Amino acid sequence: AVTAAGAARLAAHDRDYRANALRSLRAEGYVDVAGRLARSPGRERDRDVLFIDVRSVAAAGRERPVRGRLRLSVPFARDGRGRLDFLAGDTVRASVRLGTGGSFRNFGGFSYERYLQGLGVHRRASTKSPLLVARVRPAPPGSPRTWIARARRGVQRLLERRFPAPDGRDISPDGAVLEALLLGEDGRMDEATVENLQATGLYHLFAISGGHIAILNVLLFSLFRLVRLSRRASGLALAAFLVFYTVLVEGSPSVLRATLMTLAYLAGRHLWKDVHVLNTIAASAFVLLLANPSSLFDIGFRLTYAATLTIILFTPPLLRRLPRLPLKTTELALLSLTAGLGAAPIIAASFNRVSLSSLVLNLAAIPLTGVVMALGYVFLPFAAAFPSAAGPPAALLAFLVRLFGRVSHALDGLPFLSFRVATPRPWVLAGYTLALGLVLVRPRFRGQRALAAGAAAVFALLLVFPPPRPASPDLRVTLIDVGQGESILVELPGRRVLLVDGGGLAGSPFDVGERVVSPFLWRKGIRAVDRMVLTHPHPDHLAGLLAVAGNFCVGELWEGRPAPGDPLYEELGRRLPRKMIRRRLAAGDCIAMDGVTIDVLHPPPAGKPLPAPPGNEDSLVLRLTYGRVSILLAGDSGAATERLIAGQDVPLRCEVLKAGHHGSAGSTGPPFLEAVRPRFVLVSVGDGNSYGFPSPEVLARCRKAGAGVLRTDLDGAVEVRTDGRRVRVRTSV
């Protein structure tokens, strides 16, 4: 009955979300939105993020009431104007471009839409300048929410003053780490620090989480004991502080979960004296799911409760059997180990990472984090009251942050302690969970717990070393949704794979190769890329290959014309093994692999001129043939290349054409379409891109040629599967 009621609540929640007027609003170009800020601006390295509770939208000279929450991305202007200095509760008006669909919607991948739904956000939007965002009316000055928002902004200003960046306009790396620890605002931490903390498994300590609440509980209870508060008074004081702290960090989901657990426990102790901790966990989960059923799909929700359960269930019995070491070393080690028992399968499945180094590093990192947090919260009021004397404690905090950095790098010489893994199979996750549960239940026969522990160990090994993915007799070609770029996975009959380009977002710190392409390969159980293919060295095709080169074993690199001197191209060469085969392909080459014939149609052999200046027109153009089915991958080629290919004495008829240059007006011309005569045309294009791709002219040409058009901005990833006779196409949306 409870499950049925929960399913009904989730269905109603989804229905209300999808029916929202802002979510379904259709608008071309920029529109004006007005509404109130739901929270303070989020700070990131290159932008501010606003969450606006929209009240009206104006488009084409007409304003109408529309309700919903908007996530607005505003670029950070480094020209002296600084950040948007808004507060939660401010009424703002902004000229924005509404997102029309989604990005990176791949099979089985992270659902950004579901993530936004969990935050209560109905639409995302962007604007090209902070000058297009204005405060219409400040937040009500007398409300408690405004006081807390001002306090939060005051803390940020203090950290920016005491830990300025070299240019004096933003915040230093040390200040960004303190901002993450004390306020939960981790967007300004530099990329290298974030990557290192993720690799070592210590990132949970540097973004506000349930672990921080645990540290705060220990610090506050120690303080209350020092001043000899009664147990009841200590509980009430702790509850009041946690509520204030949760509001200060503006309801961070992980803090909200941990605070609810603590409050449920404190209430139980106050009312019934004897409280079963599992009941408080269940009560907090029930309240969260009742308020927001989408939390069920939140990775943080699952991590919090899985780690908490294994800590509670496994730590006490293990602690009774182990010798106590000085400085609470045994307790810290067991906390790290038992939390890992619950979190490891979720981290492996969601982030494709296993980090053993955290088991050791946590012994120093957790106490050091507690010290930094304690000193940080003392430093803030001290620096506000005595600014002239705040220099030495600020220097001490900076030293401790750098010391943490040294701790996080202590095991860099042992790279085997942290590595990437393919996504575990569902039966491996189920077997691990079942075996772990059998360790806890009352034994029915002698040796049951030892047998269950052994089974859990076997399944844990399968998390790290998954079995080979099953072979398939079909050829699969998947146009991955990488936004405004291009990446194509070719799975040959059997198990070998080719990756044609890796995508990349020019001018953006977002790493498509690390965040989109690599996870897509891991979800398919791929651990090695047999052939990496670079069609041409433009960032939107090349940049993502850098991360792939670091995450996977690469057999060979295939490329067309080299690009010596290009920074990204040179970096790719440095990341690939020195002795790896690099094969330069040219028109006329023919390669047979696993029953698939790969014909190279372009560029011309070395020494022969290109049909147009280098750039898009020197792209590799490949034709894959399996049985009676052919697929043409046109790279970024345009009309000049199409004319050259059409003039060659090679068959061009194909069932599937991947359109050249993202469907620009200068590609996929009528003569070429007549020569290829495709049933399907695939277009890799970013949602709301500024180039206007795909061109309406190209879409009209394809329709006139009788071809169906599938595009990643509307359809997500597109998979073409063939057994050599029939062609099946599916999309992720």
Structural class: alpha/beta
Across the major sheet, the strand order is: 15-14-13-12-11-10-23-24
Q: Helix fraction? A: 40-55%
Shape descriptor: globular
Within CATH, the superfamily of the largest domain carries the name: Ribonuclease Z/Hydroxyacylglutathione hydrolase-like
Determine the N-to-C terminus distance: 32 Å
Write the SSE topology:
Layout: H1 2-18, H2 21-24, E1 30-37, E2 42-43, E3 47-59, E4 62-75, E5 91-98, H3 112-118, E6 123-126, E7 133-137, H4 144-162, H5 173-183, H6 191-200, H7 210-226, H8 231-248, H9 253-272, H10 277-291, H11 299-321, H12 329-351, E8 353-355, H13 357-385, H14 391-408, E9 418-420, H15 426-440, H16 448-464, E10 475-479, E11 488-491, E12 497-500, H17 512-523, E13 528-534, H18 539-551, E14 553-559, H19 567-575, E15 581-584, E16 590-593, E17 596-602, E18 621-626, E19 629-633, H20 639-646, E20 656-658, H21 670-676, E21 680-683, H22 696-704, E22 708-711, H23 712-715, E23 718-722, E24 727-731
Parallel strand pairs: 4-6, 12-13, 13-14, 14-15, 19-20, 20-21, 21-22
Antiparallel strand pairs: 1-3, 1-5, 2-3, 3-4, 5-6, 5-7, 8-9, 10-11, 10-23, 11-12, 16-17, 17-18, 18-19, 23-24
Helix pairs in contact: 4-5, 5-14, 7-9, 7-13, 8-9, 9-10, 10-11, 11-12, 12-13, 13-14, 15-16, 17-18, 18-19
Polypeptide structure, described:
This protein is α/β, with parallel strands linked by helices. It folds into six domains: 139 residues, OB fold (Dihydrolipoamide Acetyltransferase, E2P) (Beta Barrel), CATH 2.40.50; 122 residues, no CATH class; 89 residues, no CATH class; 52 residues, no CATH class; 36 residues, no CATH class; 257 residues, Metallo-beta-lactamase, Chain A (4-Layer Sandwich). It is built from 23 helices and 24 strands. The chain has an eight-stranded mixed β-sheet, covered by helices on one side. The chain has a seven-stranded mixed β-sheet with strand order 16-17-18-19-20-21-22. Strands 1-3-4-6-5 form a five-stranded mixed beta barrel. Helix 4 packs antiparallel against helix 5, helix 9 crosses helix 10 and helix 11 packs antiparallel against helix 12. The longest helix has 29 residues. The chain is globular and about 90 Å long.
